[in-house]
Amino acid sequence: MSSIFKSLRQVEFRDTDAAGIVHFSVFFLYMEEAEHELLRSRGLSVLEHSDQGTISWPRVSCRCDYRSPLRFEDRVQIDVSIARLGSKSITYAFVFSCEGRSVAEGEVTAVCCRLVANEAPQSIEIPDWMRQRLADQP
């Protein structure tokens, strides 16, 4: 659906487990950081404040399939694309690679919600101005 946004990071020692490889849970942090970078590149944030309240994107589904390990000081490229832009949700696709080697693939689905103090988040239609920025090619 959209072009690919590329994010690069170096594996830190804190990201590794006793076996010396990146702990599986860290991939979810990497995906979230890469998502935030993509949003910022389009003039957006995971928290948008307006006169009508705050809009945010709670996750409703996350997965990651692992192909090969990453180790301390590896440089990992994370390719992010918008796989689906629905009326109330967005699904991001992530492809991890290191020196041309396939490392992992993941997916995150988040729902556009209005946040109101002391209430559960309420799903809303993605506002047109936000949809336009999400749909734009970087």
Question: Could you provide a short overview of the structure?
Answer:
With about 140 residues, this protein is α+β, with helices and mostly antiparallel strands. It is about 15% helix and about 45% strand.
Distance between the termini: 12 Å
The geometry reads as elongated
Q: What is the number of beta strands? A: 9
Strand content: 35-45%
* Helix content class: 10-25%
Q: Looking across the biggest beta sheet, what order are the strands in?
A: 1-5-6-7-4
Average pLDDT, to the nearest integer?
94
Give the number of helices.
Answer: 2
Radius of gyration: 16 Å
Stretches where pLDDT is under 50 for at least 5 consecutive residues are none
Largest sheet: 5 strands, antiparallel
SSE run: EHEEEEEEEEH
Secondary structure category: alpha+beta
Topology:
Elements: E1 5-10, H1 26-41, E2 47-50, E3 53-56, E4 59-66, E5 75-85, E6 89-98, E7 101-111, E8 113-115, E9 122-123, H2 128-135
Antiparallel strand pairs: 1-5, 2-3, 3-8, 4-7, 5-6, 6-7, 8-9
